[in-house]
Each structure stands twice: as structure tokens, then as C-alpha cells.
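Question:
Write out your own:
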Amino acid sequence: MLAVVRKQLKSHPALIPLFFFIGGGAAMSMMYLARLALRNPDVCWDRKNNPEPWNKLAPTHQYKFYAVNLDYSKLKKEGPDF
């Protein structure tokens, strides 16, 4: 399989950027899915030791991937009542 791809890339060098960008996009999407699975507060991997993970959310922690103009350090320190 790799020999066929290598042969095609040698005969058509314009395909190299296509392979590069498609591979980079696939790698970035996999990294984002891994980040969602490991860092998202909605995901609970350990039900025995942490059955209600939403009770341990800190209101001063930024859970968004990108926040524009919000300073989380100035928020109240107490958490929500569930």
C-alpha cells in the first residue's frame, strides 16, 4: 500500500501538500477529541471515586477552549449548589 502511494507521489508531486494538510487535519481532530475526553468536566472516567464530578467544578477555572474577554480569576470562589 505504501509503495503505491510512494509511486503516485513520485509521479505527481503536486499531491504532497494534499497529503500533508489532510494528515495534519486528521491529527488535529484526534488531538481535540482526546482533549475533550480527558479535560472536559462532563466526562467521568472514575465512577467509584468520583460519582458526581460536577460538584467539584471550580468557578474560577476556564473550561472553554478559547475565551475572548473573560477574566475567570475575578469570579466568586464558591461553587454552585446541586
